[in-house]
Amino acid sequence: GAAKGLENNFNRLFGNFATNSVFVWAQSTSMPFKGFQEGKSMTLKMSDIENINNEIEGLEFVVPRHQGQAVAINNFKTGTFGLFGDYPEYNKVDPKNFVQGRFINHNDILEKKKVCVIEEEIYKQLFDKDEEPIGEYIKINNINYKIVGVYREGNIRMGGPQGSIHIPFTTFQQVYNRGDTVGWFMITGKPEYDIIQIEADVKLLLKNLHNAHPEDERAFGSFNLGEAFGKFMGFLL
């Protein structure tokens, strides 16, 4: 009855999303530490990935992402969308339902290719009904990218209601001059591990790595999908 309906709603919201996941991002400190004033900005780095993988047990994936805004143009059609710099592994955490083509691959990452993967809604906005998108170019913030994949979005709209464009993480780093920084991490735990414990361990490790007070609750932000899912399932029972 009602419980089943709620569960269906949750599944519709989160789709194939790995529910034992936590998102972690950098904020600013709320406590002085080691000669640093409070209010110091934290920044996640690529080197954090190796440290997290080495120090923390029970991890399945640690996937860095960058996020921004994109004005995309095809001939005279245009729109503003969410832009993500992604690794191939992202598609394991949030599997896409491909209508055509593929997701970002390792070759795209290595060669910093100007390729993109778009949501079907974006295809509909930028192309005529029978146009073939794969292999075509669109301008994203004034740079040409070749479309390699089109997917149908589930209902967890990471790019917001306006839809998502994905480009290789390394291309995003280079084009937007992000150096070795990371916008945020998606971290997925193995099924037998407690994702809430993983979240606490990851944040404590990051505070150590970035000179924030171990008890500073504000230095790094997180959203625990597993915890949300657990509360939801508890609410059903």
Question: Would you kindly provide a written description of the structure presented here, covering whatever features stand out?
Answer:
There is one protein chain. With 237 residues, the chain is an alpha+beta fold. It is built from eight helices and twelve strands. The chain has helices spanning 2-14, 47-55, 90-93, 106-111, 120-126, 169-175, 195-209, 225-236, and strands at residues 21-26, 44-45, 59-74, 77-86, 97-101, 115-119, 137-140, 143-152, 164-168, 181-182, 184-189, 220-224. The strands form two sheets. A six-stranded mixed beta barrel has the order 3-4-9-6-8-7. The protein has a two-stranded antiparallel ribbon with strand order 2-10. A hairpin with a 2-residue loop joins strand 7 and strand 8 (143-152). Helix 1 packs antiparallel against helix 8. The chain starts with a helix and ends with a helix. The mean pLDDT is 90.
Question: Outline of this structure?
Answer:
With about 240 residues, the protein is an alpha+beta fold. The chain has 8 helices and 12 strands.
Question: How many angstroms does the end-to-end distance come to?
Answer: 12 Å
The succession of helices and strands, N to C, reads HEEHEEHEHEHEEEHEEHEH
Low-pLDDT stretches are: none
Main sheet record: 6 strands, mixed, barrel
Keywords:
single chain, globular, alpha+beta, 31% helix, two-stranded antiparallel ribbon, six-stranded mixed beta barrel, 237 residues
